[in-house]
From TrEMBL, chain A:
<keyword id="KW-0813">Transport</keyword>
<keyword id="KW-0479">Metal-binding</keyword>
<dbReference type="Pfam" id="PF13183">
    <property type="entry name" value="Fer4_8"/>
</dbReference>
<dbReference type="InterPro" id="IPR017896">
    <property type="entry name" value="4Fe4S_Fe-S-bd"/>
</dbReference>
<keyword id="KW-0004">4Fe-4S</keyword>
<feature type="region of interest" description="Disordered">
    <location>
        <begin position="481"/>
        <end position="507"/>
    </location>
</feature>
<feature type="compositionally biased region" description="Basic and acidic residues">
    <location>
        <begin position="483"/>
        <end position="492"/>
    </location>
</feature>
<keyword id="KW-0249">Electron transport</keyword>
<keyword id="KW-0677">Repeat</keyword>
UniProtKB/TrEMBL annotation, chain B:
<dbReference type="InterPro" id="IPR037171">
    <property type="entry name" value="NagB/RpiA_transferase-like"/>
</dbReference>
<dbReference type="Pfam" id="PF02589">
    <property type="entry name" value="LUD_dom"/>
</dbReference>
<feature type="domain" description="LUD">
    <location>
        <begin position="56"/>
        <end position="219"/>
    </location>
</feature>
<dbReference type="InterPro" id="IPR003741">
    <property type="entry name" value="LUD_dom"/>
</dbReference>
<protein>
    <submittedName>
        <fullName>Lactate utilization protein B/C</fullName>
    </submittedName>
</protein>
<dbReference type="InterPro" id="IPR024185">
    <property type="entry name" value="FTHF_cligase-like_sf"/>
</dbReference>
Length: 507, 222
């Protein structure tokens, strides 16, 4: 069931196995290290420019929390505002329904191609594949998305989906693949970023100029005005939002904010957190449609409001904070695990720390990959520090680990179900049960400790059986010759023998 | 059941633990504003209007916009010079651009019509517009589709955009102050420097799909 919610997604190996492969790819490691370190330092500088960052972060958190608290009201208000401004609102409970709605809307225009602005929501639902199956070509127009699409690759970063590629690899993809999709790469294309960007400009321009249908997501939707906001850099967003006659925006229901004024917070925190800029080059805001007289932008505007696991996430009192996410990707850039494992290992369009808490909630923890994602972290907390809406990612990770190991009540597709404890964690549960038993019985504890001390020379360096993986990267603690409690009883903390030790209790 | 009712029903059940979720925010928004602590600054630091304009110029230049200063009476001459230096043979002007701004320009003036195709726009060398407001702290120009700014596409497809900002009147310090001046029902475009990308190795490169050259004229004394 969880696999069905994400159309077009192959079965992914669990995170540890995928990461194990990825860390051995030295090119990938070098590319990621270079990119994440570049952006980390820049972000810190951009944030330091604002002396009220802490207050902006708190306000962003509160705005999102208040919205989620009354999400039904704000969605109804948004719908009313969009309709009043000339747009049409559609509701999609899952990926399949959203894809069906978009496909029918495109068909109704009679067109067989659409231009797309980068959108996490449409990646999440596998829209391109669904359209392709119906004979409609979707052209990605964001530079990194283009690299991914031409390279028949998967995105590995929220903001920069081709972050795993370096400039040389990008040049090779452009040279080999552009011709099959339209205008080929210029002869003698080098790997300088400016030339690569220029090649993308030339390749995509003909598609923009003839496009009749644009597909986008949105960063924000303002309930009181019906305004949608797209934040971008290259101008491909502006092309897709203004040139076509029909615009279809697929947006997750959690992207709504109550008031126009709320944008003053996120337009300050989002660019600095994502690309480390004071402001991104282009932000487009539109409300409904344009009339024939002004002809400024699409005459037809369709908003597809997407659930696809979001209401299930909302039902989890601890996990719902993940819905505050504004997709800045600061948590990816700062994460030591992401830096080494890369985005593909997370088996989702949402990689990194936010992906590790979002994917298992949107999709459920039924698959191997989703059950392993809450463990794809060292819990160092750097992600929480940089998050501009203060999502306590470590807290949610621990919460989801508990859910995987112990099972319990969750909501799937709007229905409360009780999860069984995951099979893979039987040894962990047995160990914890044994520990609980022993710690509750001082006699058993003493006996066990003495036994452990007497047999210490026979202890293995690594654990056998199910414990082997755990001890592969950790040293087993050495057991002392005498248990602490025995030593204390014998010496009263060393005082009885005058062994020079200080009394510990401060009597 | 429609998907709309299905989703809204799921939302309400998901919020069963939230004490006052069902009551909803007060209609006038006062409960919402009370819950959201807006303890952040309206603007950062105190500046005179002149200093605010200087900061705008500095931040525009930092993101590779080319900044010019002039007095109102010097504008026609300056625009003529900028377009000549660019080698522009055609220049697009929105319908409400003050006619005297382009009186000294040699390039052929192209009118934007509702029926103009994107391909026609693509053949235009340069575009000259005004703006609605400029934000100093971020180096941002905001266009709202007024008569001196035109449709959004005319500042997008041509490769060279010259934007005239009336200083200090059109300049505000910060994003919060800018939003207060704007009408959300208008189509808005926020522009901070020429088109750019960070998609190759997370490093910023200027010049992708939007105008690759952005020139900003800070015009005083009108």
């Amino acid at each position: 069931m969880s696999g069905g919610a994400f159309v077009g997604m192959p079965a992914f190996p669990p995170f540890p196995r995928a990461a194990h492969e990825a860390v051995r790819n030295t090119t990938l490691r070098a590319n990621l290290r270079h990119a994440t370190h570049t952006i980390r330092d820049k972000r810190a500088r951009a944030v330091a420019e604002l002396d009220d960052w802490a207050e902006l972060r708190e306000a962003g958190k509160r705005i999102k929390d208040e919205t989620l608290r009354h999400l039904d009201r704000y969605l109804e208000q948004l719908e009313e505002s969009v309709v009043r401004a000339g747009g049409t609102v559609h509701w999609a409970a899952d990926a399949a329904e959203a894809n069906r709605i978009v496909t029918e809307l495109v068909r109704a225009t009679g067109e067989t191609e659409v231009v797309k602005v980068k959108s996490m929501a449409t990646q999440e639902i596998g829209l391109n594949e669904a359209l392709e199956a119906e004979g409609i070509h979707a052209y990605e127009t964001d530079l990194a998305e283009l690299i991914v699409q031409l390279g028949k690759d998967r995105p590995s970063h929220i903001l920069v989906p081709a972050i795993h590629r370096n400039r040389g690899e990008i040049r090779d993809i452009f040279r080999e693949e552009m011709g099959a999709w339209g205008r080929p790469a210029p002869d003698g294309l080098t790997d300088t970023p400016a030339e690569l960007a220029d090649a993308a400009r030339l390749h995509l321009r003909e598609k923009f100029l003839r496009a009749k249908v644009g597909v986008s997501g949105a960063n924000f939707m303002v309930a009181e005005t019906g305004t949608l906001v797209v934040v971008e850099s290259e101008g491909n967003g502006r092309m897709c939002l203004t040139l076509p006659e029909t615009l279809i925006s697929v947006v997750g229901i959690e992207k709504v904010v109550p008031t126009w004024r709320d944008l003053e917070v996120f337009l300050q925190t989002l660019p600095r957190s994502s690309t480390a800029e004071r402001m991104n080059p282009y932000t487009s805001m539109w409300t409904g449609t344009s009339d024939a007289q002004t002809a400024d932008g699409p005459r037809a505007f369709h908003l597809v409001l997407l659930d696809n696991g979001r209401t299930d996430t909302l039902a989890d009192e601890v996990g719902r904070q993940a819905l505050r996410c504004i997709r800045c990707s600061a948590c990816l850039n700062v994460c030591p695990v992401y830096e080494r494992a890369g985005g593909h290992a997370y088996g989702s369009v949402y990689p990194g720390p936010i992906g590790a808490i979002l994917s298992p909630q949107l999709r459920g923890t039924g698959s191997e990959i989703d059950a392993s994602l809450p463990y794809a972290s060292s819990l160092c907390g750097a992600c929480y520090e940089v998050c501009p809406v203060a999502i306590d990612i470590p807290e949610v990770l621990v919460h989801l680990r508990e859910r995987v190991v112990q099972g319990g009540e969750v909501t799937r597709r709007g229905v409360k179900v009780t999860l069984k404890p995951a099979r893979g964690h039987a040894a962990e549960r047995a160990a914890m049960r044994a520990a609980g038993f022993v710690f509750a019985r001082p006699g058993a504890l003493r006996l066990g400790q003495r036994l452990a001390s007497r047999t210490r020379r026979f202890h293995p360096r690594t654990l056998p059986g199910p414990g082997r993986a755990w001890s592969a990267a950790r040293d087993l603690p050495k057991v002392p010759a005498e248990p602490f409690r025995d030593w204390w009883e014998r010496t009263r903390g060393g005082a009885a023998q005058g062994s020079g030790r200080q009394e510990v209790s401060g009597k | 059941m429609s998907s709309r009712d299905l989703i809204l029903g799921r939302v309400r059940r998901a919020l069963a633990d939230v004490p006052d979720a069902a009551e909803g925010p007060a209609g006038d928004g006062s409960a919402y504003e009370a819950a959201v602590d807006r303890g952040y600054a309206r603007e950062h630091g105190g500046r005179t209007p002149e200093e605010t304009v200087d900061l705008l110029a500095e931040n525009l230049a930092d993101y590779r916009a080319i900044v010019h200063h002039c007095a109102a009476e010097e504008l026609p001459e300056l625009l003529a010079r900028l377009l000549a230096a660019r080698g522009a043979r055609t220049v697009l002007a929105p319908p409400g651009l003050p006619p005297h701004w382009l009186q000294a320009v040699d390039a052929t003036r192209v009118r934007d019509r509702a029926a103009s195709t994107p391909h026609e726009l693509d053949r235009v060398d340069s575009v000259v517009t005004g703006c609605a407001v400029a934000v100093a702290e971020t180096g941002t120009l905001v266009l709202d589709g007024s008569a001196d700014q035109g449709r959004r596409r005319i500042t997008l497809v041509p490769d060279h955009h010259v934007c005239v900002v009336r200083v200090p009147d059109q300049v505000v310090s910060s994003v919060p102050l800018a939003l207060g001046r704007l009408d959300p029902t208008r189509p808005l475009t926020w522009i901070s420097g020429p088109s750019a990308t960070s998609d190759i190795e997370l490093d910023r490169v200027e010049g992708v799909h939007g105008p690759r050259t952005l020139e900003v004229v800070l015009m005083s004394g009108e």
